[in-house]
Amino acid sequence: MCPDLPLYGDTVVSDPASVRYRDWIDLLCELVAAEKSRDGRPLVLLGASMGGMLAYEVAHRTGLVDRVIATCLLDPADRSARRAAARFDLLGGPAPQLLRTLAAVAGGVLVPVRWMADMANMSLNAELSGVCARDPRGGGVRIPIGFLASFFGYSHTRPEDYDGPPVLLTHPADDRWTPPDVSIRFLERIRADTEIVMLDGCGHLPVEEPGLTQLADAMRTVLGRY
Predict the structure, then answer these.
(1) Are 106 and 148 in contact (CB under 8 A)?
(2) 88 confidence band (pLDDT: 50, 70, 90)
């Protein structure tokens, strides 16, 4: 199952300007609870990019997940992680305070996500990065300033307090957007079993070989344990 979250994909919401990051977490927690009540098989969450921290947080909150696989663990509480996430390094440091101030007066204003995110480094392939940036259901969407403020200012569960399943980090080795060391530093603090598989030759969106096959093999290994 690959759910669209509000503001992206085919999901339609009545008031896009009101969507906040915490809504994503609440929705995913509800989805996990609904799936576990319907189907008792093991549940694995796979989160790419921002989805890595979403999977981590939802696994901790619900206690219903059997394994988390993440290509990235970008904690906005980490200044270096914010600088990596933002399009411009200098914006990453003061982002929570700056966006909180903007959101107080213009939280519902929709801005192109590419203004804030380094979409040019979505992939090692410039043409593919351009396609992602223009995709009207992906990198080409507009998101409210209030959503950006809620993400950069969100306090995820501290890794030392994590009470969830094992976490597998499958990080693209040649990621030009979010350096592997940012995610690895967070992973090493998690209070649970962890594992790392580096995806050789892959950029932020892991589609290159041999990393793509390494990702598929890692996922098959996880599923084979159940």
Answers:
(1) no
(2) low
